Amino acid sequence: MIEKAIEVEKKYQEDREKGIENKSLAELLNPFGYNNLENYFLDKINYQLKHVGIQAYEGDMLGIPDAIAESVKTATPTTFFPYARRKFIWHGNEEIDLELCEKLNIDILTLDYFGGNIVSGPEDFSMGFLVPKTIDVSFEYVLNRFANFYKKYFKDVIVDNNDIIINGNKIQGSICFEGNGMFFFGTAISFTDRTDLIKQICKKKSTKIPGFIDNNILTKEELVQEVKSWVH
Fold first, then answer.
1. Between the CA of residue 50 and those of 130, 170, 219, what are the distances in Å?
2. Which of 43, 49, 111, 210 has the greatest number of C-beta atoms within 10 Å?
3. Per residue of the chain (232 residues), what is the pLDDT tens digit?
4. Which CATH code for domain 55-231?
């Protein structure tokens, strides 16, 4: 049904550009089971993500900066499910203790984004995807999708800017940027306590309390399979 609904919306937009008066979009989509436009647009994004022809990167975390840069350059829709061999930092524009990172053998991955640093490691789950901006994917859409999934397991789930807070603790940090007509979203979800490491490395004091997902309530494997089902 969603395919036909998308065709109807496309025809509706074409008619509007030509100055042709028609029924409202809500009225046109009602026969397809959409009583409000919000549900339609969410289903549309979900459908587009699965049918945009996404390629997959499942290599080493150290290859992420180059892999993302190449996918942006070639405008290739890509999902990134990297594995980490040791602790790492997605480095934004905030200062970190470089000497300590080298001493502790922490990999520094510099990505082209404006924002804070994300400290993570092999026990955690990191992922990202790059899609054309013609798909109506937004930062808020992705974080809300994560949050709605978490609410099946936890009562206190809040989207706070680019983070997700569960039971008062930050368990997920995210980044996004745009380039060459593409939208990139990347995120890291903690499954282990990195409070002390974050305090040592990140020079800017965070106002949020670091936390992690209890693997006894929601496993990393369950989350990985859920997220992969969104895009493949």
1. 13, 29, 24
2. 49
3. 899 999 999 999 999 998 998 889 999 999 999 988 999 999 999 999 999 999 999 999 999 989 999 999 999 999 999 999 999 998 877 788 889 999 999 999 887 666 678 899 999 999 999 999 999 899 999 999 999 999 999 999 999 988 999 999 999 999 888 999 999 999 999 999 999 998 888 877 778 899 999 999 999 999 999 999 998 8
4. 3.30.930.10
Residue intervals in the chain for CATH 3.30.930.10: 55-231
The β-bridge relationship of strands 169-179 and 182-189 is antiparallel
Residue written as token pair 């997920």:
172
- In whole angstroms, what is the distance from residue 11 CA to residue 7 CA? 6
CA 159 to chain centre: 13
- Kindly compute the dihedral angle of the four CA atoms of residues 7, 9, 12, 17, in this order, to the nearest 10 degrees: -100
Both tokens assigned to 195: 């409070």
